Amino acid sequence: MIKSRIKISGEKKAPPNRKLLVWIFVLTGVSSLFLWWRGKVIRGGTSENNDPDMNFVIRREISPTPKANNEKKIKEITGELTEVIATASGRYAVYAYHMEEKWGYGFNETEQKPAASLMKLPVMATAIDKLEKEEIKLDSKYTLEDADRSTGSGPLQFKNAGTVYTLDELLGFLGKNSDNTAWVLFNRRWGKGTIQKTIDNLGMKGSNYETLMTTAADTAKIWDYLYNGKYSTAIKQAMERYLSDSIYEDRIPVGLAGTEGEVLMHKVGTDTDVWADAGVIKCKIENERCKIKPFVLVILNEGVKRTEATIIVPKLVKLIWDFENTL
After folding, report:
1. 88 backbone φψ class: left, alpha, beta (φ>0; ψ -120 to 50)
2. pTM of whole model > 0.70?
3. How far apart are the first and last CA of the chain?
C-alpha cells in the first residue's frame, strides 16, 4: 500500500528522508558535470546543422587564436558556399584548412567521395618515405613494361615497352600529367598495400586506396604532410616541382585569377562525373594587401555535370579566397 504524502490537518510531520536528499544531491552534481563536459565538447569539436535541405557540417579544429573564433563569419561563408551548389547536380565537399593554426572550415569534409587522380598523392608520399629511408633515389631507374600501360591521362601510354625512366621523370609525369601509366607502374613495383600503409600512417581514416575513395579532411592531411612534412629540403623542392604548373590548370587556378593569390602545389581529380581539385594556396607576394598564410583548399564532388562544375569550382575558390582576406 502506498502512503499518501499529503499533509492532513493534525497529522504529525514526517521526518525528512535523508537518503533521498543525498541521492538528489549526487544526481544534481553528476548532471551538472555532464552538461559542462558536453558544452566543452561542442565548443571545441563538431557542430552539425540538421536541416535536411542544407545537409552540411561545419567542422573546426579550434586553436587558441582570434581567427579560430570567428564563428559568425564561418557560418556566413559556409552558407554562401552551400548556396552556390544548392541547385547544382551532384554532391560537393569543401574544406579549407589552416596548416599553421590547425583549424579549418567547410561542409561535408568527412563524407567519402571518389578521389580519382587525387589518389596519386599517396604515391608521392610513399616515394618521400622511400627516398628518406634511402631505399630509392631520384635517379633510380625503372623500365616500362606492357603490363604498366594504362589509357587515359598521360603520355607514357604511347611509349615503347623497354623504355627506361628515372624516378624523378616518373614522378614528374605522375604529378604534372597525372599519368595513369606511371601510376600503374608504381602500384606494380611497390604494391598497393604499401601505399595504403602510407595512407594509414598519415591518419587518413576515411580513405581507401583500393576503392579510390577519400574525404576532403583526409586530403587536407596529405597536403599538410607534403607541404610541412619533416623531410629533406631537396625532396620538398622536387615535390613542389612535380605538383605545380600541371597540364590541368582549369580549376583552382581559374578561381584565383585576378586575385593576389596563387597555387603553390595542387592536384586535380577527374572522372566522368568528378571535377575535383586540391592543393596549397598562398599569396603571390605577402605584403599589406595580402597577408594570408599558405592554407590547403580541397574541393571534391561526385555526380556532377562538367558544364556546371567548370563554373562552380572556380566560384567556390573565389569565395573562399575573399573570405580569407577578412580573417
Report:
1. beta
2. yes
3. 68
